[in-house]
């Protein structure tokens, strides 16, 4: 069983020889930038640099996947949001919001903004790592794009005061997110990872059920391929709704317990995670990473992975400890 077969098998709930150790969230660290000679901000914008940095997480960090890009702003840029470029250790961010009336829908999304670079990166990664390593591409969820279009405070306020406006923004955004996801999957990615924006810091469980859940369901129904939902924070109250949406995998942070998540999700989706990125991976020792990985494996994680995007200053030895922990677990 090669790494790609193992990852896709685990993601789809099939039996595999061991739990894969990957990252479904961002992997651009300063160490990997130095090792690959490819740094932010250029690696956000250029296919070649994007691919080189992504491959370093596999070749140097030992992760059993290649994952890119490193931010969630490509679609926002396409519809006319103003971006701040980012630096060597900060991601691009959205600075201005066009509003629903000001958005520009592209004639050909595959040629718009940075999209062709991200699509081309799949070919470049494949030519570097071959067919046996899974490629995972992060894309903006419809609710993330809706919040970028409206501005996050308008989005959050609108959920309460103007749900019709939010619904309209979600509809427009979903059209684009679905089209983009399909382009990415057709470019050669094995799975897309969609980090949901509407965490429980943003919405209450009721709004989630009424507005976000139908949007995600529509997304899953219209995109052909393997889809991972990543949701930050403590999500016990909405994880059942997420499981109903039809995602192949649900990626959780350390605040949500693997065992609890598995109990709620059952066999509706695989559970991915959940090594703490800010605490253990960034600030802990390799021994602490190994300990937390062992706990996640014991709790039954289907895919061992960081709980969220790697902090840029995460030490390489802590990333390497993830696969080490998995190997030790199976030696016992
Ligand atoms: Zn997260």
From TrEMBL:
<dbReference type="GO" id="GO:0008168">
    <property type="term" value="F:methyltransferase activity"/>
</dbReference>
<feature type="domain" description="Uroporphyrinogen decarboxylase (URO-D)">
    <location>
        <begin position="4"/>
        <end position="329"/>
    </location>
</feature>
<keyword id="KW-0489">Methyltransferase</keyword>
<protein>
    <submittedName>
        <fullName>Methylcobalamin:coenzyme M methyltransferase MtbA</fullName>
    </submittedName>
</protein>
<keyword id="KW-0484">Methanogenesis</keyword>
<dbReference type="GO" id="GO:0046872">
    <property type="term" value="F:metal ion binding"/>
</dbReference>
<dbReference type="GO" id="GO:0015948">
    <property type="term" value="P:methanogenesis"/>
</dbReference>
<keyword id="KW-0808">Transferase</keyword>
<dbReference type="InterPro" id="IPR000257">
    <property type="entry name" value="Uroporphyrinogen_deCOase"/>
</dbReference>
<dbReference type="InterPro" id="IPR052024">
    <property type="entry name" value="Methanogen_methyltrans"/>
</dbReference>
<dbReference type="Pfam" id="PF01208">
    <property type="entry name" value="URO-D"/>
</dbReference>
<dbReference type="GO" id="GO:0032259">
    <property type="term" value="P:methylation"/>
</dbReference>
<dbReference type="GO" id="GO:0006730">
    <property type="term" value="P:one-carbon metabolic process"/>
</dbReference>
<keyword id="KW-0479">Metal-binding</keyword>
<dbReference type="GO" id="GO:0004853">
    <property type="term" value="F:uroporphyrinogen decarboxylase activity"/>
</dbReference>
<dbReference type="InterPro" id="IPR006360">
    <property type="entry name" value="Mtase_MtaA_CmuA"/>
</dbReference>
<dbReference type="GO" id="GO:0006779">
    <property type="term" value="P:porphyrin-containing compound biosynthetic process"/>
</dbReference>
<keyword id="KW-0862">Zinc</keyword>
<dbReference type="InterPro" id="IPR038071">
    <property type="entry name" value="UROD/MetE-like_sf"/>
</dbReference>
């Amino acid at each position: 069983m090669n790494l790609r077969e193992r990852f896709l098998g685990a993601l789809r709930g099939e039996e595999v020889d061991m739990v894969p150790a990957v990252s479904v969230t961002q992997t651009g660290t300063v160490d990997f930038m130095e090792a690959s000679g490819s740094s932010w901000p250029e690696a956000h914008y250029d296919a070649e640099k994007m691919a080189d940095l992504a491959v370093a997480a596999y070749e140097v960090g030992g992760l059993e996947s290649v994952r890119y890009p490193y931010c969630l702003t490509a679609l926002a840029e396409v519809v006319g949001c103003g971006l701040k470029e980012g630096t060597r250790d900060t991601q691009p961010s959205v600075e201005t919001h066009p509003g629903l009336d000001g958005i520009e829908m592209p004639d050909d999304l595959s040629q718009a903004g940075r999209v062709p670079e991200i699509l081309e990166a799949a070919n470049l990664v494949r030519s570097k790592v071959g067919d046996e390593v899974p490629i995972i591409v992060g894309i903006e969820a419809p609710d993330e794009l809706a919040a970028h279009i409206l501005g996050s405070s308008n989005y959050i306020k609108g959920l309460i005061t103007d749900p019709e406006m939010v619904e309209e923004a979600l509809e427009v955004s979903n059209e684009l997110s679905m089209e983009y996801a399909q382009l990415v999957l057709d470019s050669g990615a094995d799975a897309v990872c969609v980090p949901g924006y509407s965490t429980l810091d943003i919405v209450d469980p009721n709004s989630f059920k009424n507005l976000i859940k139908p949007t995600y369901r529509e997304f899953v129904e219209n995109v052909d391929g393997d889809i991972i939902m990543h949701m930050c924070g403590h999500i016990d109250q909405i994880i059942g709704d997420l499981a109903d949406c039809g995602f192949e995998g649900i990626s959780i942070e350390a605040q949500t317990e693997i065992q609890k998540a598995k109990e709620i999700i059952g066999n509706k989706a695989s559970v991915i995670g959940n090594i703490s990125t800010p605490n253990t991976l960034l600030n802990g020792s390799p021994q602490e990473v190994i300990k937390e990985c062992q706990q996640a494996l014991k709790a039954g994680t289907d895919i061992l992975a960081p709980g969220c995007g790697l902090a840029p200053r995460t030490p390489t030895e802590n990333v390497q400890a993830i696969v080490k922990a998995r190997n030790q677990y199976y030696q016992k």
